[in-house]
Amino acid sequence: MGTLLKVENLVIELSTTKGVAPVIDDLSFELQAGQTLSFVGESGCGKSMTALGIMGLLPEKVGRIASGSILFNGEDITKATDDRLREIRGNDISMIFQEPMTSLNPVFSIGEQIAEVLRRHQKLEKAAAWAQAIELLDAVRIPDAKRRASSYPHQLSGGQRQRVMIAMALACEPRILIADEPTTALDVTIQAQIFDLLEDLRAQTGTAIIMITHDMGVVAEIAERMIVMYAGRMVEQGQVDHVLSHPRHPYTKGLIDCVPHLMATLTEQRAELTEISGIVPSLAEFGQDTCLFASRCHLANQQCLQARPTEQHFNEQQLVACWRAGEV
Questions:
Q1: What is the distance between the alpha carbons of residues 191 and 55, in angstroms, rounded to a whole number?
Q2: Higher pLDDT, 264 or 310
Q3: Residue 263: per-residue pLDDT
Q4: What is the pLDDT of residue 103?
Q5: Which of 88, 150, 229, 291 shows the greatest Cβ crowding within 10 Å of its Cβ?
Q6: Which DSSP string do the residues of 45-70 spell out, in sequence order?
Q7: Helix 126-139 vs helix 158-170: angle between axes, to the nearest 10 degrees?
Q8: Neighbours of 219 (CB within 10 A)
Q9: Residue 102: is its pLDDT beyond 90?
Q10: Is the pLDDT of residue 33 over 70?
Q11: Pairing of the two strands 93-96 and 3-16
Q12: C-alpha dihedral over 41, 44, 46, 48, to 10 degrees?
């Protein structure tokens, strides 16, 4: 497996009413071909903004890449033209968004919408695009795909709409698929089916997956590597089994302790369910030269309140940004 995506020292700034804030602050990571990488953290930690930065879809006028690079197959796409970015989106990197009903057009059938992607990016004729749209619906396990292709979004269940979004994202056989909380509004049975589907498609096509979630249970289910984000910063990353069994950052441990079945699996004795006190800092506090988790951390000391933690390796398996990592 080669390195497909390499993000180095990425800083994404967002203009707010209180000034400019680094919503992504010095983020670096790599994604290998065929790998599943998960970003995890509470809402507002920068997970989705990372995905939008990779896709070149940052909010107009208020969002920008201030520094750093995003190398896709060796090409720095932070310097790409709008035309080049449009070429990459869909063809090479695709994204599944949280809520299908806001992404699907209610006045066109699902078959028409998938076929439009194929006509635009693959230059297929109308009949060929329609035929391939049906094949894609069948591939994502939509029952009676030929008939369902003529259905409109409102005629499908939530799980079926999400499968349509996956079919659209995979239409051009992208090298990378970004899934942003793809099962948030679905019940647990449908969630499991969607995860199984994504894993099967990854195995069959070799597509690398970036999974964005707030749920450590999802990470344990689907990912090989994980990155824990907090207030726009990477606080821990590594192989999923190492991080879940030996978390080195207090925030990572707090997220794990909030998931009962993970606690039962990864600890000898089931502990009392815990919660992480406090809330994520406001954007106005992002970028401060301190540990931004300190106000919520029971291990915090003066050093945490005065200096930004440096990144350190543990057993060559985990990278952690915490002054007290050895004590977690």
A1: 25
A2: 310
A3: 54
A4: 84
A5: 291
A6: SSHHHHHHHHHT-PPTTTEEEEEEEE
A7: 120
A8: 26
A9: no
A10: yes
A11: unpaired
A12: 90
